[in-house]
């Protein structure tokens, strides 16, 4: 029962990790849209959310691996208990066989004994593999800027990270004032015609 609960918990953690991966992709799409609209503040917020989702996915995956490792240890312990019982039975049978000195029976018992140990070796190796696959990961400080640049590149936009926020606002203002000047000139020409 405990083994089942451990395996279920590992699957649940794995599902949560995949859910965070989907959330990360959604946040990346929002980053692209915000960059295309020129709204760097919103893009930065979505980048932070994407990185948080990525880290959460890694943490869920790490916990899933740890629970899997515990489940493997429990499985090994259960198997060891079974092997011990089987070995006790084999030893009793060997005692009886050795007394009768029937070589065929001794050979069959030795084969069975070796098979039990091979099974145990395979399960122990599987547990060790699971444990060695558990890794840790640290997050560099510049991830947000790197992610913003990647999303801008994918969207086909030039993202100038060196410009302060005030300058990007003045570029938008100068475009608006140029449009205002053009409208004023058209209005003046209409007045001249009348």
From TrEMBL:
Domain of life: Eukaryota
Biased composition (Polar residues): 165-177
InterPro entries reported in the protein's UniProt record: Snf7_fam (IPR005024)
Region (Disordered): 162-194
Any GO BP: vacuolar transport
Pfam family, one: Snf7
Family, as annotated: Belongs to the SNF7 family.
Designated name of the protein: CHM1B protein
């Amino acid at each position: 029962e405990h083994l089942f609960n451990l395996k279920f918990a590992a699957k649940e953690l794995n599902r949560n990790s995949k859910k965070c991966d989907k959330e990360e992709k959604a946040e990346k799409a929002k980053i692209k849209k915000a960059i295309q609209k020129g709204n760097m503040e919103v893009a930065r917020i979505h980048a932070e959310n994407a990185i948080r989702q990525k880290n959460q996915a890694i943490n869920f995956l790490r916990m899933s691996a740890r629970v899997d490792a515990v489940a493997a240890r429990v499985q090994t312990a259960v198997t060891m208990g079974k092997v011990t019982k089987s070995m006790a039975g084999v030893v009793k049978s060997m005692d009886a066989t050795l007394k009768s000195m029937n070589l065929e029976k001794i050979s069959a018992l030795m084969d069975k004994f070796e098979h039990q140990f091979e099974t145990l070796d395979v399960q122990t190796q599987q547990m060790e593999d699971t444990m060695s696959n558990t890794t840790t990961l640290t997050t560099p400080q510049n991830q947000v800027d790197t992610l913003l640049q990647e999303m801008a590149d994918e969207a086909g936009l030039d993202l100038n990270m060196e410009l302060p926020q005030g300058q990007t606002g003045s570029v938008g203002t100068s475009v608006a004032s140029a449009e205002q000047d053009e409208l004023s000139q058209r209005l003046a020409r209409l007045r001249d015609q009348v």
